[in-house]
Design brief:
- By secondary structure, this protein is an alpha/beta fold.
- It is built from 24 helices and 19 strands.
- The strands form four sheets. Strands 3, 4, 5, 6, 9, 10, 11, 12 and 13 form a nine-stranded mixed beta sheet that branches. Strands 15-16-17-18-19 form a five-stranded antiparallel beta sheet, covered by helices on one side.
- Helix 4 packs antiparallel against helix 10, helix 6 packs across helix 9 and helix 14 crosses helix 24.
- The relative contact order is 0.13.
Length: 655
């Protein structure tokens, strides 16, 4: 009993830190609950469970977080801890830990506000690309005020509990202290193997499940599971069955399998008409949700911030150019993104590959080079292929990926400093990007080559700033609507300049979003948060129409090649939508760790721990209703994702 009291007294500072950690975690969960009240399930079980399950994750995370404190108070000499310098050291070390915890609570709040989830892969990436992320934070938030507030709260919190932090350490022996430390470390190792991130998935409402988590625990979990081998985590089936099913799923008019082995899905694509080497400009616009367009406003019940009306006295037109293009293009009304991040959009638009679990192919070193891409196909057909990006192409491994997969990379470094009108953490404003892109097109045209340019914009992103004097919503307001208005302005300016070029009449412009502005919703796969617009604008080449068939983002590359009528050897998983028979449309989606297959008004969701669920999804609201399992759809879903993962892992998706 005496020994227990001695240990308790000796490790007092560690116990206090554990309690502080648990308290801050509880208050963070409570604050997020209040903030998201309108989207939560309010059944008693769904409200109580996040706090009970969360207690487990909080305790595990507190254990890991407090190990440095455990080692300090357990191994530093008793004489030093009881001395004045020792007390100063103890209090200072505790204050630093407290500051980190409060800073993390604020970070979780901001992350939740952006993504409506606890930390995940994105948070891990943010630590890798600190330059862009830090600049974005600087430009988006009043940091001096925030840090001053954090410092004040930290000091007041310490002052309130300072008397509990330190008392004279009891003379516990070194062996008893070492034994206690080893016991705590062993408990941490045991939790590493026994506690699973999936324990929090108790509800049909995604936000209730997210509340049950702990940000620091999930950050560590995301860091550890950055790579998720499909066979280890997801439902799978016999390899022979997978590829037999895929051969049925990937058949389409004009496609003949030429692969010599069962796992070789190469098809020869015979065009429907005479080949035309039109130039192709593929513009992927950052975060352009369908809901932002006037065409979809009523469908998505889009609401504009009252601050715009108060500041300007009216709601300005946000996307007049893009809205006007609806009637001048082939406009896709029922198109869905593959994922929730730019790298997922780039993956779909270049490889036509289903989104596999873990990291996007764009970032999956070393398997991200030499892949089958639309760039490689067009390069083999004599095209000058370029990826033109407004930021630093090091970000998200874009430069390495495109540079090793058939494209020449042109990023912000190619743009003269004296011609840049505005720049944020993510890169130059869209009009400067388009100016550089036109220079590259002129260069290709001058060399007598048809060109394919994939342009990736950055302006429609927090901190939502842009050059002065361009649009009616001033950049000082830092509103998404203003950034979107500027994005539309830049497209208009680009197309007007392009119309004066000799290559314009022989060019197909494809404008599409990389993903939606928000992925938040009550379910893990809210389809309304994947709905994106796309235009194929080519006066004199294509006939304007509303294309209303369900279309996946991975269908865009083969559809583009279909317009050109080029014969080629294909490994795409996407379809040429203008040739595909009716009734075969489908979607393939990813949301962090869950992957989904949508067809004929039903959705199969595959989750880690080899879970499979079946729903009837509501496209307009994102809600889902559980329904009995459709065995055939389940097998098709597994075949798509397992087959794509197998090909990447075995080097079979190479060009």
């Amino acid at each position: 009993m005496q020994l227990n009291r001695q240990l308790l007294q000796r490790f007092r500072l560690w116990w206090v830190l554990i309690l502080v950690f648990m308290s801050i975690s509880f208050l963070t969960r409570l604050a997020l609950l209040v903030y998201s009240a309108g989207d939560l399930s309010w059944s008693p079980v769904d409200i109580v469970s996040p706090f009970l399950i969360g207690l487990l994750y909080d305790a595990v995370a507190a254990l890991y977080f407090s190990i440095p404190m455990l080692l300090v108070v357990g191994l530093v000499s008793q004489r030093f801890l009881n001395s004045r310098p020792g007390r100063i050291f103890s209090h200072t070390f505790f204050i630093l830990n407290l500051l980190v915890l409060l800073f993390n609570a604020l970070s979780e709040w901001l992350f939740w506000n952006e993504f409506a989830v606890r930390y995940n892969f994105i948070a891990v990436d943010y630590l890798i690309y600190t330059n862009e992320v830090w600049k974005n934070i600087q430009q988006s938030y009043p940091l001096p005020a925030i840090f001053s507030g954090l410092a004040l709260i930290t000091f007041l919190s310490w002052f309130a509990i300072r008397k509990t932090i330190h008392s004279k350490s009891a003379p516990a022996g070194i062996f008893s202290r070492l034994g206690f430390i080893m016991l705590v470390v062993a408990a941490g190792l045991l939790n590493f193997f026994l506690v699973d991130d999936g324990f929090r998935n108790f509800s049909a409402n995604k936000l209730n499940n997210e509340l049950a988590g702990n940000g620091l625990y999930q950050f560590g979990n995301a860091f550890r599971k950055n790579s998720m081998p499909y066979l280890d985590f997801y439902a799978n089936q016999d390899e022979h069955k997978v590829f037999k099913t895929l051969r049925q799923l990937l058949r389409e008019p004009g496609a003949n399998f030429t692969g010599k082995s069962e796992t070789d899905l190469t098809r020869h694509i015979e065009p429907a008409g005479k080949p035309e080497k039109y130039n192709v400009v593929l513009i992927s616009i950052e975060s352009l949700s369908a809901e932002f367009l006037g065409y979809f406003e009523e469908y998505h019940n889009r609401q504009y911030p009252e601050v715009i009306r108060q500041a300007m006295g009216y709601i300005p037109k946000i996307t007049p150019t893009l809205d006007s293009l609806v009637n001048e293009s082939i406009f896709f009304t029922n198109l869905y993104a593959s994922g929730t991040r730019t790298v997922r959009g780039l993956e779909a638009l270049s490889t036509g590959l289903p989104p596999t679990p873990g990291q996007s192919v764009v970032k999956r070193l070393p398997t991200s080079s030499g892949l089958f891409t639309i760039g490689e196909v067009l390069k083999q057909n004599g095209y000058d292929c370029k990826y033109v990006y407004g930021g630093n192409s090091y970000f998200d491994n874009m430069g390495d990926f495109f540079g090793k997969n058939g494209y020449e990379v042109v990023d912000e470094d190619a743009i003269p400093a004296d011609s840049i009108h505005h720049e944020t953490a993510w890169g130059v404003c869209d009009e400067d990007l388009y100016t550089q892109a036109i220079k590259e097109m002129d260069k290709s045209y001058g060399d007598g080559k048809p060109f394919f340019e994939h342009i990736m914009t950055v302006s429609h992103h927090r901190p939502y700033t842009y050059p002065e004097g361009r649009v009616s919503i001033p950049p000082s307001m830092k509103l998404r609507e203003g950034s979107l208005q500027y994005t539309d302005y830049a497209v208009d300016k680009f197309l007007k300049e392009a119309k004066n070029k000799p290559w314009f009449k022989h060019t197909v412009f494809v404008i599409i979003a990389d993903h939606c502005a928000s992925s938040s919703g009550r379910t893990d796969m809210p389809l309304n948060r994947y709905h994106i617009p796309a235009w194929i604008f080519a006066p004199g080449i294509v006939k304007p129409q509303k294309f209303e068939r369900l279309t996946s983002q991975i269908d865009i590359p083969p559809t583009i090649l279909g317009l050109l009528n080029l014969p080629y050897e294909s490994k795409f998983f996407g379809y040429d939508m203008f040739r595909l028979e009716n009734g075969r449309e489908r979607l393939l989606l990813v949301n962090y760790q869950d992957i989904a297959y949508v067809k004929n008004g039903k959705m199969v969701v595959l989750s880690p721990r080899k879970e499979v669920r079946m729903y009837e999804p509501e496209f307009r609201t994102g809600n889902v209703k559980p329904i009995p399992m459709d065995t055939q759809m389940k097998e098709e879903a597994i075949s798509y994702f397992q087959g794509a993962a197998w090909m990447l892992d075995h080097g079979s998706f190479k060009f």
